[in-house]
Amino acid sequence: MTENNYKQLEQSSKNKKIIYRWILFIILGLFAIYYIAPLYVMIVTSLKTMEEIRQGNLFSFPSSLNFEAWDVAWNGQGFSAGDVYLKTYFWNSVKLVVPAVIISTILGAINGYALTKWRFKGDSYIFLLFLFGTFIPYQAILLPMSRTLGTLGISNSIYGLILVHVVYGLCFTTLFCRNYYISISNEIVKAARIDGAGFFKIFFRIILPISAPILVVTVIWQFTMIWNDFLFGATFTFGNEAPIQVALNNMVLTSSSVKRYNVDMAAAIIAGFPTLIVYILAGKYFIRGLTAGSVKG
After folding, report:
1. What's the mean pLDDT when you consider all of the chain?
2. pTM
3. DSSP assignment, residue 208?
């Protein structure tokens, strides 16, 4: 093969790579547009008046920015009865998700630490039970959990929902943390034990400071699951104790004479906004945590 032919083959291969790369970019771009389009429609619809919405063009820009629908979704329409809005229920979800995420994450980290660094007879069977718990569907625990909340006297309360989410999420946080801690050398713990450190001193002084990647994963996972939960909220609470997803459902299904699509869209964006913020701010740490060991083992 002459040098000229070699250059032609090299140029042909380079051209093919460029074409394939552009094809890949176009396919990925189409998928991105497909997934972002509903969010775009929700935003522009929430900023339109009902007269503009009735014109029938979903993708058109609003003639002017109108935040009245956002105000109605958050504060209500001022009716003395039958007025459903999100403000009260948004703060209910905040009061629910913060302690539930913190408690389930800390307990999951302690469980993972105990199952990997303080091995005992039968620990693998206990881990198997935690692993089995991750496959139990939501519906299977509704009846026993309802009886438990009734016995404890915390039905229809934020405290009851916190207990429900901590119990259900503990299997996932334990699985994540156990798979992360198993990749950490046991020699660190052995050296600390020789120096006289105990179970919790080693955990808080050594294990916890190097657990940031997996803690971010568990926090994002639990936050998303709890904030977006509808089944537990609708089953165990009602009235003013309900979380935001239940209020959103009630708001969308409740209407007087005219269905206000701009208000429904604004309410849906408000309900999903915290989850979006969490993924934007901590999304890259979530990926790092997953690749650091949360899905290994």
Report:
1. 88
2. 0.85
3. G
